Amino acid sequence: MANPKVNAIRHLVGRLPKGGPLCDNVTAMVKRVEAASTALDDLISNPDPMASQMAIDMRVTAAKIKLKSTVDEARNKTAALVTAERASLTENRNKKANLTPSVHAAEIRTVFRGLDSAGKIKFLNDAVSSNDGETIASLVTVPTVISGLTLEQSSSYKELFLNKIAPTDSRYVAEIEDVVGGIFGSAESLAV
Question: How many CB atoms lie within 10 A of CB 23?
C-alpha cells in the first residue's frame, strides 16, 4: 500500500488544469516528482530481501536525495514558467488595451489638476466609461505628482480600465501554483 503522501501527490497531479503550454510543462515536471516519490516509496515499502540493511539504507538515502533535487528543479522551473506566463498575460492585456498617452497628454493633465475632487472623479469615470485609453494613459502612466492623482487612484483607475477593455483570466495560474505547492510540500516531507 502506498504512503499517504504519495497518494496525495497522485491526487494533486490529477487536479492540475489541462491545456496550454504552461499546464503541459508543469504537468511534465510534477510527473517527474510523482515518479521519484513513487520510487522512494517502493524502496521503503518493498525492500530487496536479498540486500543488506546497509545497502537498503543507501538506496533509500540516494532516492531521497534524488527526490529532493527533482523537487528543487521542478520548483525553480515552475516558478520561472509562472512568472513568464504572468508577464505574457500582462503584456497581452496591455497591448489589447492600448494604454498609450495622448499627444495632448500635458494639456489633459493640466485640465485634470485644475479640477476639484468631485470633478476629477467624474473626469476619470467618464474616460473609463467612454473607453478613452489615451486619456487614462495620460494620467496613469506618469508619476502621481505630475498627474495630480493619488497613487491609489492611479492604480485603481488603470485596473478598472484594463478590466473593462481587456479582462484577463489568470485564475488557472493561481490554481497551478496552489496544486503544485501541495505536490512539492508532500514530496519534500516524504524525502525527509
Answer: 18
CA separation for the pair 174, 139 (Å, rounded): 30
The yes-or-no verdict on residue 170 having pLDDT over 80 is no
For residue 112, how far is the Cα from the chain centroid? 36
Q: Locate 7 and state its grid cell.
A: 497518494
Domain ranges of the chain: 4-97+170-190, 105-165
- Distance set, CA 90 to CA 40, 96, 98 (Å): 40, 10, 12
Q: Mean pLDDT score of the chain, rounded to an integer? A: 91
Q: Give the pLDDT band (50/70/90) at residue 92.
A: confident
> At a CB cut-off of 8 Å and minimum separation 6, what does 98 contact?
133
Question: What type of residue is 118?
Answer: A
Do 172 and 17 meet the contact criterion of CB atoms below 8 Å apart? yes
